[in-house]
């Protein structure tokens, strides 16, 4: 059905203006003043910003880890994302050494089938490089539209790949138009520090942070950036948590290397003291990289403002405190890594960033949507408000004040990492391809309406003219 959104303030990464939007067949058909359309449903957006739907580039839905599986699946996870103003997620598809990558992709398609309420895509983990993998990658790009590949530099003996794998992945990505992503921590050093801590009886959650110091993230980030420069390739560093890593990314970009950085809301507003909470409550805040000392927060905010970091992901990977996080009582290495972040990503950045003057309104849109769309082959179909774009839209009330709590969130997990935090600004209504998923703060979508999106190659647009190069 046609829809006419009237009286809203449209905000993109570069413009802010009053306008009406006409939606037809899931697309934005017209933008202008005093638009009218016979037979269209009128939606009054007075007092609201109209943003392009948020894109979360970093989720782990129904992911196996540490002997258990993350609590939010593609249904509960995407419903929570939609409540928070996100209309597209890109989830990480984990592969197994010695097995065809397609089998893992098929597994992720099966996990998501008939569940997602918003659109989604996949990144693909590269755990090894051999002739079989190299033969598969071109078909993964062309047939599956998966154009981003993750290499873990941590989790020794689980996910960690060696430097040869990383370098050859970078070389291959350059040739084929892929974007390489890294979890940048020195897994070998972490393994040593962890074993030392356990031998000394240092088993509480705080030692998760103390055995993964900022230096190991900075070292791995610098190493990955140097290898990217050597390969003349492109790199995206996920979940940057500290000044050490920011400095390495900024240095690489000054050298002209094609390196990008993502941070997450948890690193912007929480700090290492959370892991010291008594009665094992600190386990709720165990994820990797760990929370840092508070002074790192200013560095991350400044990096978002000045462009040294460009995007915000959630790193959503929720585990219940009871029954899942508790697996690590008496041994922090057995605490499943991850937290419930997907629902609050957008509002935390707006409240702590825009309302407190740390970033501009247009930067907010760029960081939560537009830049992500450009980097991951979704632009201009997604990530902007423009004629012909998908009508993925968020009507956002900038005046609403609320308190984040597990009592009111929509994730399936039994706690909220930001419990008690007061935020300003909230998504009121959310549309995915022109249909309401959230309307007046109520879920009105249906599981299975979210579509799998095949993405364009790095530096290309998601249009009929797939060889069109975007401005990065």
Structural account:
This protein has 472 residues and is an alpha/beta fold. It contains 12 helices and 19 strands. The chain has helices at 76-83, 101-112, 131-144, 163-176, 187-199, 206-210, 214-231, 243-254, 265-269, 295-306, 345-354, 361-375, and strands spanning 3-11, 16-24, 27-32, 41-44, 49-52, 54-59, 64-65, 68-69, 86-93, 119-125, 148-152, 179-183, 234-237, 258-263, 311-312, 393-403, 422-432, 435-439, 442-443. Strands 1, 2, 3, 4, 5, 16, 17, 18 and 19 form a 9-stranded mixed β-sheet that branches. Strands 6-9-10-11-12-13-14-15 form an 8-stranded parallel β-sheet. A two-stranded antiparallel sheet has the order 7-8. Helix 4 packs across helix 7 (214-231) and helix 7 packs parallel to helix 8 (243-254). The longest helix is centred in the middle third of the chain and has 18 residues, at 214-231. It starts with a strand and ends in a 29-residue tail after the last strand.
């Amino acid at each position: 059905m046609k829809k006419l959104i009237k009286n809203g303030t449209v905000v993109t990464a570069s413009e802010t203006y009053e306008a009406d939007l006409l939606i037809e067949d899931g697309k934005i058909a017209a933008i202008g003043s005093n638009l009218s359309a016979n037979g269209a449903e009128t939606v009054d957006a007075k007092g609201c910003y109209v943003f392009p739907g948020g894109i979360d580039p970093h989720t782990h839905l129904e992911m196996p880890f540490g002997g258990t599986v993350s609590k939010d699946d593609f249904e509960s996870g995407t419903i929570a994302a939609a409540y928070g103003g996100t209309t597209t997620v890109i989830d990480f598809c984990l592969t197994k050494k010695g097995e065809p990558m397609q089998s893992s992709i098929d597994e992720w398609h099966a996990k998501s089938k008939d569940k997602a309420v918003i659109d989604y895509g996949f990144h693909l983990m590269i755990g090894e490089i051999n002739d079989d993998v190299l033969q598969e990658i071109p078909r993964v790009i062309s047939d599956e539209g998966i154009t981003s590949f993750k290499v873990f530099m941590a989790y020794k003996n689980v996910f960690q790949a060696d430097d040869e794998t990383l370098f050859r992945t970078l070389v291959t990505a350059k040739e084929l138009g892929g974007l390489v992503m890294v979890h940048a921590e020195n897994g070998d050093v972490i393994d040593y520090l962890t074993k030392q801590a356990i031998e000394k009886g240092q088993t509480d959650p705080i030692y998760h942070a103390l055995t993964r110091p900022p230096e190991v993230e900075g070292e791995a980030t610098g190493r990955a950036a140097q290898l990217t420069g050597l390969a003349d390739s492109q790199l995206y560093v996920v979940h940057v948590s500290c000044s050490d890593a920011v400095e390495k990314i900024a240095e690489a970009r000054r050298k002209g290397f094609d390196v990008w950085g993502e941070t997450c809301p948890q690193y912007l507003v929480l700090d290492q003291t959370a892991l010291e909470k008594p009665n094992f409550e600190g386990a709720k805040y165990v994820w990797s990289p760990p929370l840092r000392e508070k002074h790192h927060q200013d560095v991350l905010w400044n990096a978002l403002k000045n462009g040294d970091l460009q995007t915000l992901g959630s790193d959503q990977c929720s585990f219940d405190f009871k029954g899942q996080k508790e697996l690590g009582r008496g041994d922090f290495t057995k605490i499943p890594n991850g937290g419930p972040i997907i629902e609050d990503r957008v509002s935390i950045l707006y409240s702590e960033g825009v309302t407190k003057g740390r970033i501009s309104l247009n930067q907010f849109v760029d960081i939560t949507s537009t830049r992500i769309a450009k980097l991951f082959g979704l632009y201009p179909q997604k990530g902007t408000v423009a004629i012909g774009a998908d009508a993925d839209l968020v009507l956002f009330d900038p005046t609403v004040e609320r308190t984040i709590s597990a009592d009111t969130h929509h994730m399936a997990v039994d706690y909220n990492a930001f419990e008690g935090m007061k935020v300003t600004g909230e998504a009121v209504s959310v549309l995915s391809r022109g249909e309401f998923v959230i309307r007046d703060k109520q879920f009105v979508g249906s599981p299975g309406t979210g579509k799998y999106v095949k993405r364009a190659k790095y530096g290309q647009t998601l249009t009929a003219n797939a060889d069109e190069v975007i401005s990065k």
